[in-house]
Amino acid sequence: MDPRPAFERATVQAARLVAEVRPGQYEDPTPCTEFDVRRLVSHLIGATRRFAVLGEGGDALAVEPFADELGDQAFAAGYEDARQSALKAWQDDARLDDEVTVPWGRVPGRAAVAGYVMETVAHSWDLWDALGRPGTLDPELAAIALGTARQVLPEGPRGPQAPFADVTPVPEGSGPYGELAAWLGREPVDVRNRG
């Protein structure tokens, strides 16, 4: 399967959410407990920049995973620039079979793309939740990301070195995003109602 169309769809969805952030929301909490909204958006941009450099054949690990140099007013344009660069960098079909180095190891390009789909979709859910769940999210993207997450992340205890916490229970009726959030160690309950 070519994961690039899913990546493009995931970035369109993320771009919509980044553009919806209002000035008073940047310090709000997110389900990704180490990030407030500002840090989460900064990370979405930084991670997408890394992915673009990876597609260009560069050292993604040398790219800062945050875009803290951007002010809040520049986040939407910064994300759009990063996603367009990433889409362009991965246009060559041959890149899907190249071995590349990502933060989680050395993998074929197509596995790297799938990993960035998972990351983009998961952080889009984090942002959507933090913003009060505006509009709807693409359920097919969640199903794709969940498939990747189940392949690459163990269900059992993950330990402190893992970038995701242990699986949490999935409340009834959570849907594919709730299942993805739970698999990635988040509580799939509106962050504003967590007390």
TrEMBL record:
InterPro entries: CHP03086, DinB/YfiT-like, Maleyloyr_isom, MDMPI_metal-binding. Residues 8-127 form the Mycothiol-dependent maleylpyruvate isomerase metal-binding domain. Pfam families: MDMPI_N. This is TIGR03086 family protein. One of its GO terms (molecular function) is metal ion binding.
